[in-house]
Every structure is written in C-alpha cells, then in structure tokens.
Design a protein that fits this description.
This protein has 482 residues and is mainly alpha-helical. The protein has a domain of 217 residues: Serine Threonine Protein Phosphatase 5, Tetratricopeptide repeat, CATH 1.25.40. Helices cover 44% and strands 4% of the residues. It contains 17 helices and 8 strands. Helix 2 packs parallel to helix 6 and helix 14 runs parallel beside helix 15. 51% of the residues are buried.
Length: 482
C-alpha cells in the first residue's frame, strides 16, 4: 500500500517543507518527514502548499538519487563510506525512500489538497494559476520518477483512501498521461481568466505564465525524446524555452539549509564522500590535448568549463562561480537542454544541417556567463559539417558523417547535463538502439557488463504494497529502454 496509508489525518507536507526552507535546522533535501508532525482537519489554502511542492520537486531532481546516477554515468566518483558502495553498484531499495516520499506525500498528496481547496472555495484567477503550476510540478516530478524507476503507481493512487494498494502503471502509460497533463497546464496558462503574474509563492517565475508555457513544451519534448518519438520531440522543442532567462532553476540562498544542494552535501559533513577526480567527464573536458579522452579540438577549448565543473572542495561560500558554489543556480529544465533536444532530433528527423544549426547555438551560449560563470579560456567556434567527415571530430572510426555529428551532440548533452539525470537517461536510452552514439563511459568495476538501468522502488513501498514489482535489479532495463 502506498505511502499515503501513513496519513490518518490531512498531513500537510507542503507547509512543513516551507518551514524547513526558511529554518536553520538542516537542508530541506535531506529532511526525513515525520508524517504525524503536522496534522489538521482544516482545508489548507493552496498558496501555502504550492511552494512546498516546488521544494519537493527540487529534491527529487537534484539530490541523493541524482548524485548516484552521476556516479553511474562517469560524472562523480564515490570515494568513501556509503558513496563508495553506491559507486560500485551496491544499493538497496531503501535509497529510494526519501525521493519516493517527496513524490507521493510532498507533491501528489499536496496537489490533491490544492484541488480540494478550490473545489470548496471556487476557482479564481490566482487559483487557476496555482492549479496550472501544480500540474507542471507534478509533470516534472512524475516524469523524473518514471524515468528512473520505470513502472510506478500513478493512475490508481487515492490519497483519500489510506488502505488502498495501488497498481503500478506501465512506464509508457505514465509518459502518455504526462503529455496530457502538460497539455492541460498549457491550456490553463493560455486562458485569459488565469492570473498572468504576481504570485510570490512561485519560486521559479513569480507566476509568469509565458515562461511556464515554454517550460511545458520543453518538458513535452524531453519526454518524447526519452520515448524515442523524435519528430514529436522536435516539434514541441520549437515551442520550448527560447531564452536563458526562461529556464526553470533552483536559485539557492545563503540561508543555512537553503544553499546549492551540492554545496550543502559537502559542507554538511559529507566532505570527501564524492569527487570528480579522474572521472570520465573530467577527462572528457581535460585541458591537455594529449589526454586520450579529451574532447578538445581546434574549435573547442574548455578550461573555463573544467574550472566550473569541480566539486572536490566544500569551499564556495557565497560563491556562484563553480557548480557547487553556495549560491550557484541548479538546473531543472533549461534553455540549453531545449537547444540540444532540437539539435539531436533535428539531425535525426530533418537534416544534419538543421541539427548543426542548433548545436552551434549551444556553443554560442557557452561563450556567455549565463552558461557557466567561471574564469578561464573558453573557445566554442562554430562547427561545419565537414568537421565530422571520416577521420574528423568524433569520427576516428570512420562512421558516416551524420552519425559523427550525432555523437558530438550526445557528448554535448553529456557534459551540459552535468548535475542532472540527463547523462544517465541518455546512456540508457541509446544502449539498445544507438550504441555507436553512446558516450563510452567505463564501468566502475569489472564485475558487470551493463550499466545500471533503473533504481528500485522504495523499500517503504515494498513493505506495504503487495502490488510492488518483485525481483527487480538495477540492471533490468525499464520498458522504454528494452
């Protein structure tokens, strides 16, 4: 039975999230919710809940499980304690407990409470905006959840029946439902009766409907890409995030517990647990052209990027010039991701020339401080198709030019997606159908021959729901990656 069963009263996790976000106790991402700590028989105003759902979504996308996926995709290295075990693929279902609870208690439960509030009190202009944003947060969180866990409970969940044992939906059915959910959100945002701005509780865009619509289309494109519906991904990305300022990010503060989550992880007693030392990604952006794994070429020099993608020190107090700086924004759904979806799917479905246009747009973006704010040499001169001819860039094995271009695009996604699930999602997406395009990340030990393909659903779910799938291992591909 789902985690909702522990809620014998109307548990308002969102309110607890908000209080945590502004408290000095600990980072909100690592808080273990006491489900009986905040209870009420009242209907809670929706504006008190929406911020909590956003914080839960940040934790799902940017904290513990993302760090594990980064270790499994050559971006981080587990050095000591549990992180060394996780790095070597030794993991149990209990590692999923917190993220599972954020999803079902911190978002889906609270979204049903938000809807209930407006069912009782009527739906005004602000309410329409909050409902639309809640759909977006749900789509982001559930999309990440099905990508990393595969089949999950979704259509059958019932927060009002604490004794219900929901079925696990097929992964493809969840993706289809999310496309409908995003369409619903877009329709609500486009309605002139929906408040257009001025929502202080919206920590991402302050209620700016136009920005939310662009994020919705980029999420639609992301999910079509993950399900290999490449034409649909391109069509939706054309309507996606059109400028860096429209990216959906988590903007940390210097208040204790609300900093950049990588910074808080290192500064919160975990210094030395994880590094980027001698990782595949680190070598890929190596400064020396003699490094056999470097992607440096006559048109590319990534000293500044290498300086930015460095988490080896907990230093970075009040900093935003390295990826684990205390105040460095963290990516959720971004302009550069949208451009890279256009690049890959344009190259696949229209022409190599079209894909190259979008790849060069990404390279031009990397010349700006909006991409990464760190000193050092940065050269990203525009590519031409001839660069990818046999013997050229990403083509030492003389594959067709269009495939070499796709390799470069996937490689750019790998580096650009540092700190998100994008690199691991791509490794799994390409394994069965496009292994020649995969970034050749080495295995962390010699005892396996397949990359981890999923996380196992939460142990708390196995303890209570007889419908939870039995016998899964992290090496079993999810439905979309068979």
């Amino acid at each position: 039975m789902l985690v909702f069963r522990i809620m014998k009263n109307k548990i308002i996790i969102g309110c607890l999230c908000i209080s945590l976000f502004f408290s000095c106790e600990k980072s909100f991402e690592d808080h273990n919710f006491n489900p009986n700590a905040v209870t009420t028989e009242e209907i809670i105003p929706a504006d008190l809940l929406i911020k909590g759902t956003m914080l839960a979504n940040i934790s799902i996308n940017l904290s513990h499980l993302q760090r594990i996926s980064g270790m499994w995709s050559g971006q981080y290295r587990g050095e000591i304690a549990n992180y060394l075990n996780l790095y070597n693929y030794s993991i149990t279902a209990s590692e999923s407990n917190s993220a599972w609870q954020y999803l079902y208690n911190g978002i889906l439960k609270q979204n049903r409470e938000i809807a209930k509030y407006y069912d009782v009190n009527g739906l005004d202009a602000e309410g329409r905006l909050i409902i639309a944003i809640s759909k977006m947060i749900e789509a982001n969180a559930v999309g990440t959840a099905t990508a990393i866990w595969g089949d999950i409970p979704y259509s059958d969940i019932d927060p009002n029946d604490v004794y219900h044992d929901p079925k696990f939906d097929k992964q493809t059915d969840v993706y289809a439902a999310l496309q409908n959910l995003l369409d619903d959100a877009i329709t609500m945002f486009q309605d002139t009766s929906t408040l257009s701005a001025g929502l202080d509780e919206d920590i991402h865009f302050g209620g700016d409907k136009a920005k939310w619509i662009e994020v919705a289309y980029t999420l639609k494109a992301r999910y079509y890409l993950q399900t290999k519906q490449y034409s649909l991904a391109y069509q939706n990305a054309l309507l996606g995030i059109s400028a860096p300022d429209n990216s959906m990010k988590f903007f940390p503060t210097t208040t204790f517990g609300t900093e950049n989550l990588l910074y808080r992880f290192g500064a919160g007693g975990n210094q030395g647990f994880m590094s980027v030392n001698n990782t595949f990604c680190r070598n890929l952006i190596a400064i020396a052209s003699t490094n056999p794994n470097t992607r440096r070429n006559s048109k590319t020099n990534e000293v500044a990027r290498r300086n930015y993608l460095n988490i080896d020190s907990a230093s970075g107090f009040n900093s935003s010039i390295r990826i684990n700086g205390e105040r460095t924004p963290m990516n959720l759904v971004t302009y550069q991701e949208n451009l890279l979806i256009l690049a890959e799917t344009g190259a696949r479905t229209i022409s190599s020339s079209q894909g190259l246009i979008h790849l060069n747009e990404v390279r031009a973006f990397h010349l700006t401080s909006e991409s990464f704010n760190r000193a050092g040499t940065r050269v990203y001169n525009p590519y031409v198709l001839a660069d990818f001819a046999p013997g050229g860039i990403d083509n030492q094995d003389n594959i067709p030019q269009d495939r070499a271009l796709l390799r470069e695009i996937i490689e750019e996604r790998y580096v650009t997606g540092f700190g998100t699930f994008m690199p691991w999602n791509d490794l799994r997406r390409l394994r069965a159908t496009d292994s020649d395009l995969m970034v050749p990340v080495p295995f962390n030990n010699n005892n396996i021959s397949i990359y981890p393909q999923r996380f196992i659903p939460a142990q708390s779910e196995y303890n209570s729901n007889p419908n939870a799938p039995q016998g899964l291992t992290i090496f079993d591909p999810t439905e979309i990656n068979q």
